Fold these 2 entries.
Entry 1:
Amino acid sequence: MAVLEREGSRAQLAAPEQAVYDIAVIGAGYVGLPLAAAFAEADQRVLVVDVQPQVVEALNGGRSHIEDVSSERLAALVARGGVVATTDYEQVRQAHAVLIALPTPLSRQREPDLGYVEAAARSLARVLQPGQVVVLESTTWPGTTREVLLPILEGGSGLRAGADFFLAMSPERVDPGRGDWTTKTTPKVVGGVNAASTKAAAEVYRRALDSVIEVSSAEAAEFTKLLENIYRAVNIALVNELAQLCGRMEIDVWEVIDAAATKPFGFQRFLPGPGLGGHCIPIDPFYLTWKAREFDFSTRFIELAGEVNNDMPYFCRSLISQALNHGAHLALAGSRILVLGVAYKRDVSDCRETPAAKLIDLLRAAGAFVSYHDPHVPEFDGMRSQPLEPEAYDCVAIVTDHSSIDYGDVVRRASVVVDFRNATRGHEEGGTVWRL
Ligand SMILES: NC(=O)c1ccc[n+]([C@@H]2O[C@H](COP(=O)([O-])OP(=O)(O)OC[C@H]3O[C@@H](n4cnc5c(N)ncnc54)[C@H](O)[C@@H]3O)[C@@H](O)[C@H]2O)c1
């Protein structure tokens, strides 16, 4: 256990070597597990804390449930003692730094739900040690670290943030399924509740990550993450709107985007699709909208982008209906539709907030018989993934463009294909393809 001497009301800082663990990661999810692996691979001793006993048991057995960390990679780290998992917060006493990577969803009323973070903070406060460095990684509204986390940690521990322990925010930037940028190579932004906290947290990350950027406050770090996600949400909404216009004008939006992307400066490529998905982009912007109300400010771009993006499944349903009508003289009601891909994006199994869910609901409400095929998702919405037999359906709707699918074969075998991802590009011959 890290033994720390106190000097008046201020703590003598814990030397990292006094701790049994260098890092405790709270939450073994899409963010927490890659983070734990990155630190362990930098020869840091990592404690992973999760409330799900079966997750902890699997991790200690070297079995990973997160695609970005293979079981092989995890097993090697566990075998050499680099990663240890537990459900027991008591063990966090023995860690030098504590990184919180917990979900920050929206409530049913679409307001920020900090329940996971608050519950973990209460557990952490009971075991918090002088000299520890606590960092929030979860995406959230600017002010959360100081206004929510700080009082819970101080109240429960009797220690003072920025003096007895350090408190900072460093937003996670993981993009699941991505190979070119990893937790280690993606620059990390860090901002503390005071300068000492920024410095202490930055030092922790520099032990394992390639590049750490210090900002002036926890609020600046929180806002940075929201800017990144809002930038994506707004630009995706823009191309989604233009895709609808292109459809009416009989111009291929994909060709236009590719052509615009040849400009070497001033343009970034965003692609249209069936709607937003995943834990971040559909949710995080509304954390800012909620906080902005406190300042009598309305975030119009965010609201507009939300409207356009939320409308996409409705637009996609009408495209399927037109394709059936013109391509096969069929009505949507009574047609058999195979939704190809239900994960929220290519080559992952994550279905959180996937637009496929809304589209399937809409198709069913219109009387269609819906099945799905997804090589990454064996069960979804009470259904099982069906074999990929395009000829057995009136229409195949490509919602997620997993790279393992032979789209040429799908086009050849299907009666009608509706493609929301441009996955059939170059495979149009010999089939009927309708594209967003
Ligand atoms: N998933 C992504 O692609 C992504 C990308 C960037 C940022 N983020 C942000 O990172 C944060 C974490 O998201 P995630 O996707 O890793 O979540 P997740 O749902 O994958 O994992 C969370 C884990 O925390 C555990 N947990 C819940 N309450 C706990 C508690 N009190 N103590 C310990 N463990 C607890 C759960 O059992 C689960 O295993 C969110 O704020 C999210 O917005 C996510």
Entry 2:
Amino acid sequence: MSNPTILTVDDDPLVSAAITRDLGNQYGADYRIIRASSGREALDVLTRLAVRDEPVALIAADQRMPEMTGIEMLQEARHQAPGAKLLLLTAYADTDVAISAINDIGLDYYLLKPWDPPEQRLYPIIDELLDDWRKAHPDHTSDVRVIGHRWSDRSHEVKMFLIRNHVPYRWYDVERDAEGERLRGLAQVAPEDLPLVLVPDGEALRSPSTLSLAAALGLHTTAQQPLYDLCIVGGGPAGLAAAVYGASEGLSTVIVEREAPGGQAGMSAAIENYLGFPRGLSGSDLAHRAIAQVSRFGAEMVLARDVVGFQTRGPVRAAVFADGGEIESRALVVATGMSYRRLEASGLEELTGRGIYYGTAVGEANQCEGDVVYIVGAANSAGQAAIELSRFAKQVVLVVRANTLTETMSSYLISRIITAPNIAVRYHSKVVAVHGEGHLEALTLADAETGASEDVSSSWLFIFIGATPRTDWLGSDIARDDRGFIVTGQDLLSIGSTRSWSLPRPPQALETSVPGVFAAGDVRLNSMKRVASAVGEGAMSVYLVHRYLATI
Ligand SMILES: Cc1cc2nc3c(=O)[nH]c(=O)nc-3n(C[C@H](O)[C@H](O)[C@H](O)COP(=O)(O)OP(=O)(O)OC[C@H]3O[C@@H](n4cnc5c(N)ncnc54)[C@H](O)[C@@H]3O)c2cc1C
């Protein structure tokens, strides 16, 4: 296949030559750079490429062109090159028009001319756009292959792990894909040993544990040093931010994550309120960017390891793993966030992972293509899932206990749900039972007002009913409230009585009842439960760690 194309469009010969030269210098080895001098010529080029099925990664068009403006051209280009990233070159006077184009035509970025020096003002932007494009258009030749049963909970776990760790994979359902059955036969794997995972240049893995899958993929699952300045438990936004700030400010830093970096935010289809991203960004994109930043600054990331215990040994703090082993550090940040609360309904435990899921991964939404999908929940997470799943499902039904969504969901999501033709909301309702042989086949819904119940057919139920912190592993030394949220700072003095704080100095803002152990993000009592606040607290915890380390 030929290299993907970057198309530049400008009627001004000097600007056209400059953008084509700068892009060619940096990206010419991997992309074909084509230059057009008008909107019409660019559309002709795109039509030719579309006919030959040649991919277009990026179109960079100047706004001010005679006959056809850059925005008009980019809007038309959506037909010939639907997935291409769209960049508008503008003068300062066109800024308002460019901002409107973000909503109107899905413009990806606008760049003010001139862009010198390109190393600072052009390449970082293009790098991100091309990176996003490549993620959406992966080269499948090096994919991991997963062969399993559609309704197997282990297959689901493996796929979730790959999606959330940004590992491209191809899925083969043994019952539906002849190729899947062929691969299973070749690897001589019995049906009960599925899922089979084929890693390029690696051994065939039979129903691998998360840890062995991570190791086979080359992810780090053990720490390299005997002692760190800072150990962070939890790789959500708070933990990732702490790792970036810790490592960039000279602390030897390790971060431990049991599932996948990104945390709850990684499950979000569109975070629209995070500063600096006017088009919003997906949680997976945010996580991907954060992971790159963490490794760029040299923090170590230990994946697929569950921290199940905590110990204080003089000035050393130890995080202990489920499967043995531990990490010692001089300071610890707990950023373990929250996990989904369990739904109480008859038959639910048995079918969880077999059509019933807590949360959902954006990349798996297409599994529900053409089906009827039920979602339980009334908060933003349920609303985002409904919108994402409605892109594939025939019908999405949101099951809500209350009579309204207005008290629990943001208005921008409510208006999208109400206007979506294939999303219905069932108010004052709850799921009381689930049924199915081997996988979900039907649900019983009860009406809280009339008491009437109804059985409905569906193979999919996604549950978003809030979350609780899982902090039992911290033992009794770290003060928590009765729901498990970690008490920090001044709250230790007011809530926890004298037992909670032992030193003559007052606790620092995010410090827990054990000096040198800090809590950041959703796991902390009275935290705001938002991405931005989690990131802010993660960053701030590092400043407090520095102050603490100066005292010991
Ligand atoms: C679907 C969804 C959509 C959302 N949308 C938005 C939005 O649009 N805007 C917004 O501002 N907020 C949104 N939120 C809320 C936001 O995602 C959270 O506030 C934020 O992720 C909290 O970050 P955190 O780092 O504190 O915790 P988390 O994101 O919960 O991350 C904690 C991490 O710690 C790991 N962990 C837990 N225990 C252990 C252990 N013992 N050992 C090792 N690792 C452990 C977990 O696996 C997890 O990765 C959304 C949440 C959800 C679920």
